[in-house]
Amino acid sequence: MQETYVGCDLDGTIYRGNCSIDFFLFCMRKTQGLNMFFLKHLGNYIKYLLRFHDFHENTEKFYRFTPELENPEQLIQEFWDKNIRKIKKWFYSLHMENVLIVSASADFLIKALQERLNFAGYVATQVDLKTGTVKGGRTCIGKEKLKRFQQEKPEARLEAFYSDSKKDRPMASAAKVSYKVKRNSIKIWKTRNHAGR
């Protein structure tokens, strides 16, 4: 039987903000010695804006703080204890057994969120907590999201897709119907592939 999913981006779509950045700032308050990473992140972000590196290179550098965490699993749980409130209320109206989170954020953050909310699954950037390195290919963003979805869920069909980002147009085009999210406003997202449907 073909699996049918409702796909959701995470950051800015169902989560108010960026959970990876929020997690780093949370860890910085809890762990001594991470201040130097703040300056590195700031420098890397400026280089990204100036196009000295692409998004994937930025991601590879971002998670290098995780080897410095003494008890990362505990910090992840404490992070969601505090930040679960940033999940938007409309998300809870979806049928969790059909929801698939497709995100550029780290899989270790989304796995912990799945354990709390019991959504069906996720496709995310794979990050090794012990080394801070990105595994399994490139950052899960833009065209890579659709590629990874098709690789990991080859028999699946997207009934709907929600996102706040234009970068998610490939995923939006693959869904039967797509929605553009802006804060708490949700509107139909018309893409070229939806024309005539």
TrEMBL record:
It comes from the Bacteria. Pfam families: HAD. Coiled coil: none annotated. Signal peptide: none annotated. InterPro entries: HAD-like_sf, HAD_sf. This is HAD-IB family phosphatase. It comes from Guopingia tenuis.
